[in-house]
Write a structure and sequence with these properties.
The chain is of the alpha/beta class and 354 residues long. It contains eleven helices and twelve strands. The strands form two sheets. The protein has a ten-stranded mixed β-sheet, with helices on both faces. A two-stranded antiparallel ribbon has the order 6-7. A hairpin with a 7-residue loop joins β11 and β12. α1 runs parallel beside α11, α5 packs across α6 and α9 packs antiparallel against α10. Bound molecules: nicotinamide-adenine-dinucleotide, 3-isopropylmalic acid and manganese (II) ion.
């Protein structure tokens, strides 16, 4: 089997710290379970690269990325130095759109050994897959400013919802729900307030659900959903939401399953016309960057989603099992989970558990 070509963008802050551990784990898991090999292409695109070159990636950067089988991404953003308007808006968000990675899959699972901030939740009790629309909606780069800096300043930020865009993310979520034991799906909107875009989403939901009579589905307003993610997260199975609502709800689903340091994500182009991208849900965490204490498990679990996407299911399952074992044993934990272990020690423990 030829080596899988992976572009690696560590980015800023804890991004490179956690991605280093993910690369180590993937190497070993794939060699052991699937006899697979990797050709890693480390790309230095980050805030410091921007400071040196005046752009987040070189002019042929998108062509370079397109030649890979997948992209493993840490995080970008160092807002004290360069605005997110540059770092995030020249690299991360255009990547999702240019490569039409319209499915942002964000699982949330309460692992054994992880303290849950909610009382009385057994391991595995919270087990949801959030399908976040990833190319349009509230993140559409449409809008502008008039009279900046004056007291007459007007800013317009337009949400763009297309029938095709709504239907395709809903269909991806229904397909996933159909394959899960509970076969349950919740569609999140705010169509009581935002009648146009969210109204179109609701119409698309009502049309697509007809194709899935085997899936029990319902619609929930995002404010009530935020409450229920805390009050009764165990009731959710597959959740499908717009770009912004999916973003916010997945920091919440990460928190109720113990830590954002465990939250993984896949930005998938299901057609495989362009590479998909795998990254933790968290950002560059400037508050802990450089201290060597970031939890690398979110990055490792994101790499497991990449292994699934590459068809290396045994390696993916082996990686998840190794993470679950380290968490269940509870001997090494980073500070976000109440321990004192370093990022590298967690990488070592996951490697040993493989
Ligand atoms: P953040 O996710 O970076 O951090 C939020 C909090 O979670 C911080 O207290 C941080 O220490 C903690 N945390 C995050 N990851 C952790 C880990 N692996 N282990 C332990 N603790 C962890 O969010 P923020 O502070 O709002 O954003 C910081 C920067 O990152 C901003 O520039 C933002 O735009 C950017 N960002 C980038 C991405 C991305 O590139 N995918 C995602 C989110 C935020
Ligand atoms: C995420 C991040 C990004 C998003 C930011 C950095 C624009 O929060 O991946 O969750 O909102 O999508
Ligand atoms: Mn986010």
């Amino acid at each position: 089997m030829p080596a899988h070509r992976i572009a690696v963008i560590g980015g800023d802050g804890i991004g490179p710290e956690v991605i280093d551990q993910a690369v180590r784990v993937v190497e070993k898991a794939a060699a052991k379970f699937d006899k697979a090999e990797f050709a890693w292409n480390k790309l230095p695109w980050s805030t410091s690269y921007y400071q040196q070159h005046g752009h987040m990636l070189p002019p042929d950067g998108w062509d370079t990325l397109a030649k890979h089988d997948a992209i493993l991404f840490g995080a970008v953003g160092n807002p004290a130095v360069v605005s997110d308007k540059v770092t995030v808006h020249e690299l991360l968000l255009p990547m999702r759109r240019k490569f039409d990675q319209y499915v942002n899959l964000r699982p949330a699972f309460l692992f054994a050994g992880v303290p849950c901030p909610l009382v009385g939740k057994a391991p595995g009790a919270i087990d949801m897959l959030v399908y976040r629309e990833n190319t349009e909606g509230e993140y559409a780069p449409v809008g502008g400013n008039l009279y900046p800096g004056t007291e007459n300043e007007i800013a317009v930020q337009t949400g763009v919802f297309t029938r095709r865009g709504c239907e395709r993310i809903l269909r991806a979520a229904f397909e996933a729900a159909r394959k899960r034991p509970r076969k349950t799906l919740t569609s999140i909107t705010k169509s009581n307030a935002q009648v146009y875009g969210m109204g179109l989403w609701d119409d698309a939901y009502l049309a697509v659900r007809k194709e899935y009579p085997d899936v029990r589905s319902s619609s929930l307003l995002v404010d009530a959903a935020a409450m229920d993610f805390v009050r009764k997260p165990e009731t959710f199975d597959v959740v499908v939401a717009s770009n912004l609502f999916g973003d916010i709800l997945t920091d919440l689903s990460a928190a109720v399953t113990g830590s954002i340091g465990l939250a993984s994500s896949a930005n998938i182009n299901p057609t495989k016309q362009f590479p998909s991208m795998f990254e933790p849900v968290h950002g560059s965490a400037p508050d802990i960057a450089g201290k060597g204490i970031a939890n690398p498990m979110a990055a490792i679990l994101s790499a497991a989603l990449m292994l699934d996407h590459l068809g290396l299911a045994a390696s993916a399952a082996g990686t998840r099992d190794a993470v679950a074992k380290v968490l269940a044993e509870g001997k090494v934990k980073t500070p976000d989970l109440g321990g004192t272990a370093t990022t590298t020690q967690i990488g070592d423990a996951v490697l040993a558990a493989l």
